[in-house]
Amino acid sequence: MTAVLLSAAGLAAADGSGATRAVGGAVVLDEGELDLTPRLADGKLELQIDDRSSGTTVVREPSQVVLHAPASSLQYTPDPVTTALGTTNMDSWQLGGWEAGNIFAPEPGWNGSAAGDDTDVSLAAYEGPGDFGMATYTPEMDGEDAPAIPYLGSVESVQRSFTLPGDEERLLPVWQFTAEGVHRLTFTVTSGGSSDTETLAVVVGDDVDPSTVLPGDGSPPTDTPTGSTTATASPSPTAPAAHVIAEGHVDMAARPTDGDLEFQLKEGTELNHEWYEPGEVVMHVRPAAKRKIPDGYAFLGTPGDPVWWLPLQQNAGIVWPGWNTTQYARAELDGRVSFRLDSVQGPGNIAMFHNDAMGVPVVSLDSGDGLPDAHTLGAGTHSHFDWVFGAEGVYRTTFTVSATLADGTKVSDTETIAWVVGDDTDPSTVTPGQGDEPTATPTATHSESASATPTTSTSASPSPSAPASDSPNASAPATEPGDDSSGTGGGSSTGDGGSGRSVSGGLASTGAQVGTIAGVAVAAVLMGGGAVLCVRRRRIAQ
């Protein structure tokens, strides 16, 4: 199980299974399979949790468990699910959704086979900052335009009970939560004239540390000392004057200035944005970007290992980096703008790529196989790619952006961007630009090489192009009207920060997902602006 950061207020400990302890001795479950199981014990029905997160089954009481739906469980909500559960959210925190195989989160199910007969399961009470519901909806159901199957919901229009068959060993509905915070779900199970009522505490998102949350209905344990004190955190070091960008749209842009070229960052939309020097900014890749490496992406590492993935489409709650040359008109340049990654300093490798029309990754930048790497864009272009970071920590990426002006003048600018991946480091304490804190040299994650990769090299190896069986973002390259593509791809858009979508055999969305969702995306080529606008099919009313 993934380690959970423990507050000084919690009774931090670990039991024999490796589970993390929290306030009142509760166990925090934040990853792996578990089943809520109505079970006959001495002729009496009891609702218990069969926890398989450690590799062996441990039976736990719901009142001694805190379930954690991490920030990475924030995903696009299909319209049939919102209809079935009476909600309107385009994005919600989901356990057991379509992205269950790609994220590190609990996978809760229901096991009816230990009750001796069918079991009536009811949501006897609900307390939380938003709405809760459970429903079944699969890609196959989506392909057939079938409605979702609701089981339970906190919304008045949704049923409050369902029948769990006695031969059902693992029912896997999607658990949906519409808001971050602490939710308390009180379930009553009844079978054969016996019943049991239990309350399960669920922490949704990362605004609340689950190790500080009391389990069950929130009542403090009777043996908790009344005079206990909470340790006070030591003050943070003085923060440098950095602007932290942790979510939303930001472009790495080439801008003309007094006959020269400047590499700057554009945060916001086309109509509402600010410009920053790279040396003023720290980019924060939040924990919500954490994903598992899917099959077919060997250049990223071993399938199933964690990476921090910023997808080509805009996802809620995380930063969406793109590239921008729209400040240059085509007539102002002789050729294309080159964005060259000279060096990467940090704890892991960085890769930038898109998927072709067949779902095969096309890699533009990869510090794991040697640097420098470069990709080019024509003038008047705005594009997005998938970005993946191999480990948590502080990274420094040094880019040289160069072009040849129409009169033959060569112009360039070299700048360093600081990135903080994960929450192990407070981004407000990180010096922007080149910085001076020590960081490790990234090592190759390729299965064919275990040797260290230098931060810079004089030549780049050819970009690998691994087959993709389950593409997390099956995106075709975006071509610029009237301009040959050279080391480019990804998705181009109109530059308004909220309309970028992937051109995909699957569906891009604004949900926090990486996996392919069934459907068809439509690409509209907009002549004159050199942009491709990609739109996914959504059935949700907006």
Description:
Strands 1-2-6-16-15-10-13 form a 7-stranded mixed beta sheet, with no helix packed on it. Strands 17-21-32-31-25-28 form a 6-stranded mixed beta sheet, with no helix packed on it. Strands 20-19-18-24-29-33 form a 6-stranded mixed beta sheet, with no helix packed on it. Helices cover 2% and strands 39% of the residues. It is an all-beta fold and 542 residues long. It contains 2 helices and 35 strands.
SSE layout and pairing:
Elements: E1 20-21, E2 27-29, E3 32-41, E4 44-51, E5 58-60, E6 65-69, E7 74-76, H1 79-85, E8 91-95, E9 106-110, E10 119-127, E11 132-136, H2 139-143, E12 149-153, E13 161-164, E14 174-177, E15 181-191, E16 194-204, E17 243-245, E18 248-257, E19 260-268, E20 273-276, E21 281-285, E22 290-292, E23 306-310, E24 319-324, E25 337-345, E26 350-355, E27 361-366, E28 373-377, E29 382-384, E30 386-389, E31 393-404, E32 410-421, E33 491-492, E34 521-526, E35 531-536
Parallel strand pairs: 2-6, 3-9, 6-16, 17-21, 18-24, 21-32
Antiparallel strand pairs: 1-2, 3-4, 4-5, 7-8, 8-14, 10-13, 10-15, 11-12, 11-14, 15-16, 18-19, 19-20, 22-23, 23-30, 24-29, 25-28, 25-31, 26-27, 26-30, 29-33, 31-32, 34-35
